[in-house]
């Protein structure tokens, strides 16, 4: 009987404050969608790091006729200098760190350059001898690239030794910034949702102040009076959370897997399994925030 009375009060409150409830649902939906997006973006960054860091190579760029630097005073790297670098890579000092390496001469570098910049006007002005001959090195442990950089950077005929992970770090830094921005926006939206829930509950309590006074006179406990209001807030937030979860699944299915994974097949992307991990997190977060906010609001109202 008490439960039926509580649910009746919840239904009445939702009906009386329908527009405010819709506002709570929308704000919760938008804020938790940002939260879910930020979580997915962090998952995506983790996947990309695992995928690309293992494939990242160290490039040993040899001198060309236009190279600057102390190692390139004699112009392009000679055959003797190229052989010296190859011997160093195969030697006892560096071999334990190296999985494999290969040499890219001018012609191979020019071919790759033309494919990479096909349709770009710059491809018409670059000649093969302007491109570096390069040793591409795969390390057993990519985090030990500093050993290779230190060993070869000062070698004659070497223009530079570059760890490709430095380029990846720049990309991941941008992605992290986007993720933090999403978290910041989500945080502001969640604050707005909490305040809106508290306002909705207090307005609902104010509109039923006569009923609350009667319930107090007949001996109803504060917990019995508070419960319908808390359930109103939780219901609105729960609907918004479920909608946000559906939006996250939709984003992953249609945009990430349906578009990005098809058009960028060279990397791995988060899938439905990761999205399904995020959904219950959003539901729990939305429900808890709503319950805490509603409980705080109605408790303060009943003390006034």
UniProtKB/TrEMBL annotation:
<feature type="transmembrane region" description="Helical">
    <location>
        <begin position="21"/>
        <end position="45"/>
    </location>
</feature>
<comment type="function">
    <text>Part of the ABC transporter FtsEX involved in cellular division.</text>
</comment>
<protein>
    <recommendedName>
        <fullName>Cell division protein FtsX</fullName>
    </recommendedName>
</protein>
<comment type="similarity">
    <text>Belongs to the ABC-4 integral membrane protein family. FtsX subfamily.</text>
</comment>
<keyword id="KW-0132">Cell division</keyword>
<feature type="transmembrane region" description="Helical">
    <location>
        <begin position="229"/>
        <end position="255"/>
    </location>
</feature>
<dbReference type="InterPro" id="IPR003838">
    <property type="entry name" value="ABC3_permease_C"/>
</dbReference>
<feature type="transmembrane region" description="Helical">
    <location>
        <begin position="275"/>
        <end position="298"/>
    </location>
</feature>
<dbReference type="Pfam" id="PF18075">
    <property type="entry name" value="FtsX_ECD"/>
</dbReference>
<dbReference type="InterPro" id="IPR004513">
    <property type="entry name" value="FtsX"/>
</dbReference>
<dbReference type="GO" id="GO:0005886">
    <property type="term" value="C:plasma membrane"/>
</dbReference>
<feature type="transmembrane region" description="Helical">
    <location>
        <begin position="178"/>
        <end position="201"/>
    </location>
</feature>
<dbReference type="InterPro" id="IPR047929">
    <property type="entry name" value="FtsX_actino"/>
</dbReference>
<keyword id="KW-0131">Cell cycle</keyword>
<dbReference type="GO" id="GO:0051301">
    <property type="term" value="P:cell division"/>
</dbReference>
<feature type="domain" description="FtsX extracellular">
    <location>
        <begin position="57"/>
        <end position="161"/>
    </location>
</feature>
<keyword id="KW-0812">Transmembrane</keyword>
<dbReference type="InterPro" id="IPR040690">
    <property type="entry name" value="FtsX_ECD"/>
</dbReference>
<keyword id="KW-1133">Transmembrane helix</keyword>
<keyword id="KW-0472">Membrane</keyword>
<comment type="subunit">
    <text>Forms a membrane-associated complex with FtsE.</text>
</comment>
<feature type="domain" description="ABC3 transporter permease C-terminal">
    <location>
        <begin position="185"/>
        <end position="293"/>
    </location>
</feature>
<keyword id="KW-1003">Cell membrane</keyword>
<dbReference type="Pfam" id="PF02687">
    <property type="entry name" value="FtsX"/>
</dbReference>
């Amino acid at each position: 009987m008490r439960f039926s009375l509580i649910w009746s009060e919840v239904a009445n409150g939702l009906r009386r404050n329908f527009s405010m409830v819709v506002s709570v649902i929308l704000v919760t939906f938008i804020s938790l969608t940002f939260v879910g997006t930020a979580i997915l973006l962090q998952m995506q960054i983790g996947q990309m790091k695992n995928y690309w860091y293992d494939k990242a190579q160290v490039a040993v760029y040899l001198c060309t006729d236009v190279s600057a630097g102390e190692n390139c005073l004699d112009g392009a790297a000679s055959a003797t200098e190229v052989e010296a670098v190859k011997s160093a890579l195969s030697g006892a000092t560096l071999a334990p760190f190296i999985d494999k390496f290969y040499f890219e001469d001018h012609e191979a570098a020019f071919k790759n350059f033309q494919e990479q910049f096909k349709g770009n006007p710059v491809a018409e002005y670059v000649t093969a001898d302007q491109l570096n001959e390069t040793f591409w090195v795969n390390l057993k442990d990519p985090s030990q690239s500093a050993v290779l950089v230190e060993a070869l950077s000062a070698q004659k005929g070497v223009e530079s030794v570059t760890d490709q992970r430095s380029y990846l770090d720049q990309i991941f830094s941008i992605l992290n910034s986007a993720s933090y921005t999403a978290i910041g926006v989500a945080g502001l939206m969640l604050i707005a949702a909490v305040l809106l829930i508290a306002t909705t509950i207090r307005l609902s309590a104010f509109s039923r102040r006569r009923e609350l006074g009667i319930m107090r006179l007949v001996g109803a406990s504060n917990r019995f009076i508070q419960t319908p209001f808390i359930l109103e807030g939780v219901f609105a937030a729960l609907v918004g959370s479920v909608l946000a979860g559906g939006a996250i699944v939709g984003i992953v299915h249609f945009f990430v897997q349906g578009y990005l994974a098809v058009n960028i097949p060279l990397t791995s992307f988060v899938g439905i399994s990761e999205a399904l991990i995020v959904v219950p997190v959003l539901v729990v977060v939305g429900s808890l925030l709503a319950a805490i906010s509603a409980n705080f609001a109605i408790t303060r109202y009943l003390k006034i």
